[in-house]
Amino acid sequence: MTTPAPRSGGFAEPYGHSSGANLADILERVLDKGVVIAGDIRINLLDIELLTVKLRLIVASVDKAKEMGIDWWETDPALSSRARRDELARENAELRERLARLEELEPGSTRKEAP
């Protein structure tokens, strides 16, 4: 039984020397072009639909996703500090408006009117 000779400093490389470069090339192509994987899972019992799961997976670079019109991460407060600031500013404005309306309705309001 013959075993492959170890490389200098380690074990024999099982997939050849260029597998790292090939993987990088494939990843670069996928991110540049984009890949969409779509599927639906349905669970039925006696012709009654119990559960439907729709799966959509897009693998692409940020630039390619923006070209396709996908930019949801820019408006998600959990992922974008700008979206978080915008949401806080909007919420702050709404609360100030509600407070002003409540103070106008309250007969014994402590709010001072401008002369």
UniProtKB/TrEMBL annotation:
Segments forming a coiled coil: 78-105
Q: Where's it mainly located?
A: other
**MF annotations from Gene Ontology:** structural molecule activity
Tell me which Pfam families the record gives: Gas_vesicle (PF00741)
For this UniProt record, the keywords arranged alphabetically read as follows: Coiled coil, Gas vesicle
Q: Which InterPro entries match?
A: Gas-vesicle_GvpA-like (IPR000638), GvpA (IPR050530), GvpA-like_CS (IPR018493)
Subcellular location as annotated: Gas vesicle
Gene Ontology cellular component annotations, sorted alphabetically: gas vesicle; vesicle membrane
The answer to whether the entry has keyword Coiled coil is: yes
Sorted alphabetically, which PROSITE patterns does this protein's record hold? GAS_VESICLE_A_1
The family classification in the record reads: Belongs to the gas vesicle GvpA family.
Q: What is this protein called?
A: Gas vesicle protein
This chain's source organism reads Streptomyces misionensis
